[in-house]
Amino acid sequence: MYIIIGGGGEVGYYLARNLLNRGHEVLLLDKSASRVQTLTEELGQSILRGDACEARTMEEAGAQRADVIIAVTGEDEDNLVICQMAKKRFNVGRTIARLNNPKHEELFQKLGIDVSISPTKAILSLIESELPGPHFVLLMTLKKAGLEIVEMSIPALSPVVGKQLNQINLPRSSNLALIIRGDETIFPTGETVLMEHDEIYALVNHDGEEELRRTFGTD
């Protein structure tokens, strides 16, 4: 697989190195001469000086035959330009963008970026999941399916405590996939009784997320 990475910072460097170690053909692009010189000794011909936002650079990099283009610069605007150009000019099948500001996520989705990854959002979700008390955490977005995987804990005063699943009016767009109760793993059925502090893993679409929060009292 041929993968082009735009942005030779620490994220781009470690990503390129790991992908090369896995046997992929990788080209890392960075417009800083000093950065390219620093990394050339280790990456050799797998790094090229050039601005990944420019069509000429991408053409020189062979974007027309790339399987994946990944944009991991420190600027969301640049990452968006790189991925849009990859799609529209070079017909690249898969684009992945680093999202520095989580507020831009909806814009990236609307403009056709296949996958956007927000380190800030991931860290916040991890912190929230480790805090004591009730929580509702987005673990993953399944873009093609239009679904999210969420984790939530049931508060002691939740209206669902002590009820069977078939007694709860769940959003039509949601599906409870797994319950963790202490050291016990439960694959729920309609007769499963929910208990306080149960950890619930569910599939839900974006529109049903707020309704799911209200149902379980995790607002």
Automatic annotation (TrEMBL):
Pfam families for this protein: TrkA_C, TrkA_N
Location of the RCK C-terminal domain: 137-218
Residues spanning the membrane: none
Annotated GO MF terms: potassium ion transmembrane transporter activity
Keyword Secreted: no
InterPro entries listed in its UniProt record: K_uptake_TrkA (IPR006036), NAD(P)-bd_dom_sf (IPR036291), RCK_C (IPR006037), RCK_C_sf (IPR036721), RCK_N (IPR003148), Trk_Ktr_HKT_K-transport (IPR050721)
Record's keyword annotation contains Membrane: no
Residues annotated as domain RCK N-terminal: 1-117
GO-annotated cellular components: plasma membrane
Keyword annotations of the record: Ion transport, NAD, Potassium, Potassium transport, Transport
Protein name: Trk system potassium uptake protein TrkA
